[in-house]
Amino acid sequence: MDDSTNNASDSTEFEENSDNTAEDLQNETKTDNQQEGESICTDGVEERSEEDETRVEVLEKTVKKQKEQIDHQREEIEALKSEKKQLVEALSKQKAEFDDYKTRANIREEQAKSDALQKVVSDLTSVRDTLVRTLEQESQSNLRDGVESTLSILDSTLNRHGIEIIDPKPGTSVDPHRHEVIFQDTSDEYETGKILSVHSAGYCYEDNVLDSAQVVVVKDT
Question: Core-most of 28, 42, 125, 172, by most CB within 10 Å?
């Protein structure tokens, strides 16, 4: 009787111990699985953190490089602006110098033309003055018609080339820019200071007096 009871008790205790052991194994397994899962999660987070840091570093380097490129391009733009300004100033200076040279060249050219023309006119007017005096002295000469014809041709030639003959009429006022008073004489016909006669005609080209007309004026009596 006592042996049976003891055996039953031992069997019950063994079963309880077995259940406890199984339960402990299950708990240990769960704990290991949880720890392994937590380790995997932690590793994943660390890997993502490293990847993010790498991406940030790459982005920072890219931004820095782009900023350096922009700064370099700005420097190049400023250099180009400065070069452009210098070129514009140099071009303006050269243009001003060229305009000045062209103006001076035109003045010299006009002066050369005027000097050459004045020489030619001086030669021609000498011939004209001689013809005029011939007409005055040879009023009854058989050569008069020929001299008048020659004088008319010469006057037409001078006028055709823009040369104006300054030959004021008696009784008109003296123009100091176009007339040269060489003598004074009395007159009952004209007022004092008026032109009495023309000693020799003058000549003008494009408003430039090449030779003033020499005139005699009425003096005050």
Answer: 125
